[in-house]
Amino acid sequence: MPPFHVAIVGSGPAGFFSAASLLKLKDVAVHVDMFERLPTPWGLVRSGVAPDHPKIKMVSAVFAKTADHERFRFFGNVELGKDVTRGTLLDQYDAVIYAVGAQEDRRLGIPGEELAGSVAATDVVGWYNGHPDFVSAPIDLSIERAVIFGNGNVALDVARMLSMSPTDLRATDIADHALAALESNNIRDVTVLGRRGPLQATFTPAELRELGELSGVYVDIDPADLEDITEDDLDAAGSIVRLNIEALRDLAGRDRSSEQTKRIALRFRRSPLELRGDTHVQSVVLARNELRVDGTNGVKAVDSGERDTVEAGLVIRAIGYRGSPLDNVPFDEQRGVIPNEDGRVIGGDREYVVGWIKRGPSGIIGTNKKCAQDTVDTVVRDIADLVEESPRDPDYRPNAVSVSRHPQVVLAKHWNAINEYELEVGKRSGRPRVKLCTIPELLEAAHAMGVSAQE
Ligand SMILES: Cc1cc2nc3c(=O)[nH]c(=O)nc-3n(C[C@H](O)[C@H](O)[C@H](O)COP(=O)(O)OP(=O)(O)OC[C@H]3O[C@@H](n4cnc5c(N)ncnc54)[C@H](O)[C@@H]3O)c2cc1C
């Protein structure tokens, strides 16, 4: 098959796994150009995965290897819809793969949600991870009690980061501004609330066990939430849920020690009804739920009519991420994804989709590998005939973004300069990395060597 050219938009796991699958194809030399709106690659591996999970971030070494491939080019600080258009990409490439993830948060849709002190987990996670969009997110840590809505790993990540000791935080690559704020924060109590019960929670055992390892933190589980769970329930729920319940039972059986001055409480069967306060949130009104089996064999939470009011100065919704529409690309508003069949965009033109913007915001980093392979299989099937019929000149190279037209573009060598700088400053401070967190700082480090003038 003659060589062909693919644009990938987004440099998170889905984008990099797609690039790797394309570059390793045996019968065809695929050229891959990757466009990323930030000056930094890796998507949520850099800006989502918790700072105290360095092993998980090691997947970036795999992405770096892909980026070294001679048929791969990186174009950072280039946003589809702003710096480059869908039309240009379609003109210059044989196929375009959207790997833009899910950038927005889901809202609770209750009164008071707009009060100061009510924020999305996307803001908090972006803030502590140094995502440039969230450097100035209004995270008020002068308060004593935070409430987090959600029962997934993101809720537990946020609870852990808010409760971690300064010594442990300093050993991570947390953003400097977040480190400074968390070192002196007043939070003593974080309550994580789930709509349904422990059997329906989507967090995983390792994250639960980590809560129990935090120094100075007591994990408060109400044994009553666990006592009705039977062996049959656990058999039906599967091995991860079984391990979750074991971890919860272990935590529930521990006594609080005098050194444990902070508390993380996990409470179930509670839904938020209203956030109260004048301008700043002060309390949350909760409904107590009963669980009922619904028609599809799922379990749904039903308001029992009982109410609780909990004081809280910081309320964080960790109830899921959501994709957003892209420069005239077909979009399913209901599901917040790009509609597709086997990765092929429905209503698109040689356009494909992968990762969270294809499947919705679920699945771990590894899930995106199989997802990428599936999409790449579809790309190759679809465009084989096209490139056989009208092969491109072997020397053809797209130039959708050139340094002369977009001098602030961050090419691979510029990203390498940022990366080395962050690692070097980290080394000097005894930390894995010290992140640059604003676009001007990142561009200054990127172009410090004056390399922008040459492509
Ligand atoms: C808080 C959090 C913690 C997580 N922790 C873990 C964990 O510990 N372990 C684990 O295995 N998984 C974890 N995950 C899940 C994992 O991060 C996702 O499975 C994975 O990142 C999804 O990959 P993606 O490439 O689809 O999206 P993303 O990683 O979001 O990448 C999308 C990329 O597209 C870019 N982009 C967006 N719009 C445009 C545009 N218009 N133009 C150009 N570029 C654009 C974005 O800047 C981003 O770099 C976590 C997720 C979250 C939210």
TrEMBL record:
Keywords: FAD, Flavoprotein, NADP, Oxidoreductase. It is an enzyme of class 1 (oxidoreductase). It comes from the Bacteria. It catalyses: 2 reduced [2Fe-2S]-[ferredoxin] + NADP(+) + H(+) = 2 oxidized [2Fe-2S]-[ferredoxin] + NADPH. The keyword Hydrolase does not apply. Residues 4-164 form the FAD/NAD(P)-binding domain. Its cofactor is FAD. InterPro entries: FAD/NAD-bd_sf, FAD/NAD-binding_dom, Ferredox_Rdtase, Ferredox_Rdtase_adrenod. Its EC number is 1.18.1.2. The keyword Ribonucleoprotein does not apply. Belongs to the ferredoxin--NADP reductase type 1 family. PANTHER family: GLUTAMATE SYNTHASE 1 [NADH], CHLOROPLASTIC-LIKE. This is ferredoxin--NADP(+) reductase. It comes from Rhodococcus jostii.
